[in-house]
Design goal:
Layout (H helix, E strand, L loop, with lengths): L9 H17 L3 E3 H9 L7 E4 L2 H10 L3 E3 L4 E6 L2 E6 L10 H6 L2 E3 L2 E3 L2 H15 L3 H15 L5 H11 L3 H11 L10 H12 L4
Parallel strand pairs: 2-5
Antiparallel strand pairs: 1-2, 3-4, 4-5, 6-7
Helix pairs in contact: 2-5, 2-6, 5-6, 5-7
């Protein structure tokens, strides 16, 4: 793993990365969440693991791990040491984009199947909105900004996807960008962030 700014304790993120690699060797999945963002940005590492699987792989996981079903949040869960693994499945889970869409439209990145960048942006905006005010919400906020800083978003595609799957996303993203002033863990002081925001907001009118 390359060095990056720290948000979570390095010992925990290294353990999480090791568990993720072990899962990749045994199971087919689409990686979402903070680790998917890291594969794009090489910015902040993640503590938790978030994956999308089909029901065949869910059955395989159940044979190996004690799997818990979270009906309220529409996902399955595994605990590996200090690492939480959240598992999303088709026609049940919707982490901002329906799980079945993520399985169908994943792309390859550094040996993992991950969502396309615009899918990931919608999901991170969704997560940040849902968890704002918490430590995980703060990490979602930084992940969201790190995706934008890349400068690789295809905004027309983002708007088409948002219109289909998350119509509220552009307005919420605009509101979020207007409100945030700095992101020091990403080395974004007020002046640099203000300059970047002006460009992003032109796509969110």
């Amino acid at each position: 793993m390359t060095s990056s700014p720290a948000f979570w304790n390095d010992l925990i993120t290294e353990k999480s990365w090791d568990h993720l690699q072990a899962l990749r060797r045994r199971f087919r999945f689409v990686l979402i969440g903070g680790w998917a963002v890291y594969l794009y940005t090489r910015s902040l590492k993640s503590k938790d693991i978030d994956i999308v699987v089909d029901y065949g792989v869910l059955y395989q996981l159940r044979q190996v791990y004690p799997l818990a079903k979270n009906v309220r949040l529409k996902k399955y869960e595994i605990r590996l040491d200090e690492v939480d693994v959240d598992i999303y499945v088709p026609n049940f889970s919707n982490p901002g984009i329906p799980a079945e869409v993520l399985l169908q439209e994943a792309v390859e990145r550094e040996g993992f199947q991950v969502p396309a960048l615009e899918h990931l942006l919608i999901m991170k905006e969704h997560a940040q909105f849902q968890r704002q005010g918490s430590a995980k919400g703060e990490k979602d906020s930084l992940d969201l900004l790190s995706l934008l800083v890349m400068g690789s978003i295809e905004w027309d595609r983002y708007h088409r996807l948002a219109q289909r799957y998350a119509p509220e996303s552009p307005a919420r993203l605009k509101q979020y960008l207007v409100s945030i002033q700095e992101a020091l863990p990403l080395r974004l002081d007020r002046h640099r962030l203000a300059r970047l925001k002006r460009g992003w907001l032109t796509h969110l009118k």
